[in-house]
Write a structure and sequence with these properties.
The complex is a heterotrimer of chains A (239), B (644) and C (291). Chain B contains 26 helices and 14 strands. Chain B is of the alpha/beta class and 644 residues long. Chain B folds into four domains: 253 residues, ABC transporter involved in vitamin B12 uptake, BtuC (Orthogonal Bundle), CATH 1.10.3470; 87 residues, no CATH class; 163 residues, P-loop containing nucleotide triphosphate hydrolases (Rossmann fold), CATH 3.40.50; 80 residues, no CATH class. Chain C has one domain. Classes of the chains: A alpha/beta (239), B alpha/beta (644), C mainly alpha (291).
Amino acid sequence: MLIIKDLESGYGKVNVLKKINIEVPKNKVVTLIGANGAGKTTTLRTITGMIKLTSGHITLNGKSIDNFPSYKVACLGLAHSPEGRRVFPSLTVFDNLQLGAFPRLTGSRPRGDFKGDIDRAMELFPKLKERRNQLAGTLSGGEQQMLAMARAIMLNPDIILLDEPSMGLAPILVEEVFKIIARLKAAGTTMLLVEQFAVGALNIADYAYVLENGRISMHGPASKLKNDPAIKAAYLGGH
Amino acid sequence: MRFKFLALAAGIIILSLFPIFQTNTYYIHMVERILIYSILLFGLDIVVGYTGQVSLGHAGLFGVGAYTAGILYFKLGVPFLIILPIAVIVSCLFGALLALPALKVVGPYIAMVTLAFGTIIQILINEMTFLTEGPLGIIIKKPIIFGFQTKEIHYYWIVLAISALSLLVINRILKSRLGRSFEALRDSPVACDCMGVSVYKYKVYAFIISAGFAGLAGSLYAYSEQYISPNTYVFELTVLFLLAIIMGGRKTRLGAIIGAAIVITLPQLLGDVKLFRIVATALAFVVVAGSALLISKKMSTVRKVAVPVIGTVGLMAFSYLIKNISDWRLSIFGFMILLVVYYLQDGIVGFVNNFYMRIFSSKKSARDQIDVGDFDKDDAIISAKNSSAPDQLLNLKSVLMQFGGLKALHDVDLIVKKGTIHGLIGPNGSGKSTLINVLTGIYVPTSGTVEFSGSSIVGKVSAKIALSGIARTFQNVQLFNEMTAIENIMVGLNHTYKSNLFEIALNLPRFKREELAAKQRAYGLLKFVGLEELANEEARNLTYGKQRLLEIARALALDPNLLLLDEPAAGLTAPDIKELLLIIKKIKDKGITIILIEHHMEVVMAVSDVVSVLDFGQKIAEGKPKEIQNNPKVIEAYLGAQTT
Amino acid sequence: MDIFVQLIYSGIALGMIYAVVAFGYQLTFSTSATLNFGQGEALMLGSMVGLTLSNLGINYWLIIPLVCVFGFLQGTVVEYLGVRPAIKIKSEFGWIMSTIALGIIFRNFAENIWGRSTFRFPGPFEDDPIKLFGANILPMEILVVLGAVSMMLLVEIFNRKSIYGKAVVATANDRDAAGLMGINTGLVITFSYALSSLTASFAGVLISPLTLAGSGAGGALGLKAFAVAIVGGLSSGLGIVVGGIILGVSETLTGFYVSTGYKDVPSLIILLIVLSFKPAGLFGKTTIKKV
């Protein structure tokens, strides 16, 4: 569904990513893990047009999306729950969810069962249901993460990119977040999960890529990588 | 260098002889006005070209100078030679007054502040008739100097002399540490403060100095025009000044003069439709031909040149449609501004420079050898070994940093021992950068104590903290991009100067000595990090790895006891990292204490004596590198808990 | 005493006009961190176009929507020529100078089309004042206040109720995240400029029957509306209403009790003082530096 080929990109003069190759097949959960500064978020930002790629190709469902602006990528069915949540603080929870479906409500994507989807989102995230009319800026970190994920789901996307959903969350909340990802996985949602917490990500993903200094240093089925000692070395040094 | 000096001397000679051969006072007066405007523009360039702010109030300062002269002449009969310095001083005072609201704001707000200021001055001049005679204006005669009644030609020479002097003084000032500080202010205010150059202070200097020149120009203008009235010092004049600076070229004296010449001769040009048509047609021709040349040399595309081509051709068509030019004068100014702001950003001077270099692809005059004599590179870093600082160089107790509901730092205790390398690690968002920002005064801690070298730094401004011995690098490189590598370091050496404005303006011996010493030290610091070959290269052209090394060298220029390195290895390749480790070790050998934030574990573990681990704003572990690597809490914080 | 209250009424009406123009600054600043230094000229053009339509015999109440359409188009032109290229090259100097330049050009065109003199703009009401709390108030002044408040309320309702309005708020909150939602933020910025000029032109038609309309009206007005926007804080709607009233009343009082020449001074001094001590405005929020 999503294919990244020989991708190079970065900020200004720095080429953070050096020819990486990633494939996210339909209905699978693929995770991209690696230490901080390795380039995980850069990868996602390049896919959704927030950064220009220097070379390489990105295709979504066979269509090239190289350097497409963010809104176009969203209208093609790729939802992105960004690093740091980035919910709209002066809008309510409901408004945020509604905006997640913006392309559906303005004709860029099939409208589908909008009302039903809102209800389903509330059911998946009960905390949001309670705070339906609350301003998103007043939610706690964990609740904002739920909102960001629910907002991404509201697009009715073909694929969801989750950027460090566990960042800054207490361990209990991290558990909850991964439970929700598990439910989404069970429903067949295609996901690309970027995580700094390798263990949780490897537990839930089907396939994993490890990013080190802008290169894929290893990849394989998540179950295999989970017990690999090289993972620990990649994160904590220790040569 | 010689060439420029000869050109200047030739220019002055030609201009001095000019009124002898061209006796028509109309043209003498015109050149006089160009010189007077140039003086103001030299000063305006400091604010617009160097500190990068938009000032919409310089017409007002010009008016202050003119009316100080007018009032002193008319009401008190003060002689010319005394009026000039008084006008300068009064304008400087107004400049300081203007700086006050401009201090804490940037960008569009400065534009508003200066606009409001200029408007108020114009209103005051118009309304305070008891002082200024209001709309009636004041008539001024040419000055009598020591009993001699000067005529047009004598006054012209006086103006020429003063403008030549102004050019020299401004040049000195802008090439000195003042000019560097102004540019640093524009490129990165945060880095400026952290290098001990107080943004507030230098903003005020910039406004005061530029106001002084504006006032000088204004007072000369009063005697030149022999009549002043309030409706001259209006918004349109300020816009004209800005157009002159951008069109001529920022940061060059020649640009200011060219700009002044253009805006003064423009009304003559625009008074005559036929002449305007000729010029518009010629301009359109030049732009079309030049665009064709660039396209044929594959240096530009049709899309890029479309707008200037359409614009100038449209202007040419417009010139044939209208009958009376002076009614449309302002539209043409407006149109010129649009064109210049997007297509001539470096001004005529800059454009010619770039064009010359592109067509003839000459190398920049970089890399000329800097004469540093027998300066030993190891002397560049002042050893901190024998400093009287206490063994516990840095002592944090119960530091809380709260932003609204978020506790970025929560009850953090930290002791850093003198002469050690102290590593600081933790997952994203754990509070590492927040801690560095607290240590450098960017954030004031909500509560808790922070003691450096025995005294508290809580509440001190960044510039003061920097000067007291804490230097830093930044996670996102904050170099002064448009300045060269050596200039970047010399900003860090600002604190080594004791000479004042006068000594700089007059190039007195102490200033000369200090400048040479600073240059040598800066070069030595570049050598220390291995960048001496790139001394004259603009910082933004360096590769990322070299930029990070330059930041370290710049921080060392502060003679710090404590050096904070914020992710110095980010984005570096393996060989770069090896080099970095060597440099860090050498810094430690000089006795400088280092706090090292890093995600590259091999870097932290290789050099640190002690490592502290932050998670969620709290310290969760501390100890020797090997202990930390095997600490289960740390492993969990980084890799995540073992879920079933 | 009567005169004093009368001046207060006039001041409030005047202040509401400033508030509407300041509202326009807020609209564009919140979505794009830029604003139109020629906003005063947008107001002036609104009143001049309205004048022409009025001379053609068109009814006042029909002039209002027509001028609004004109303003919408004018704002689009300003954004396209002046702001969009500057945002692309990330030059603050660029949009400041080019919106100033466009303002100058519009003013010059207005001078040439309508001349430099000021005109009487016939309003929809007779000039007979009404008595309110013992002092005179013109019906037109009441219309100005009502018109200004309803315009701002309409935009607020649009922002809160319609999906497109919410998209504008989202862009103002976080432009990158709004893009991820499928919102074309470039279009949002163009729209906010169009809306900003619309409100300014609307204000121009409102204020003209009270003051004289002329091509030179724009400059000082744009600056005083800045003052209102700064005092109110560039993100608070209530703030600019309060700021507008304060500045409007200070102007009418100064104009009467001191002299007409000085009437602009209090607003400008308030601007300078607020920027000296509380740059985020009386109602604004200070942002945290991120290094």
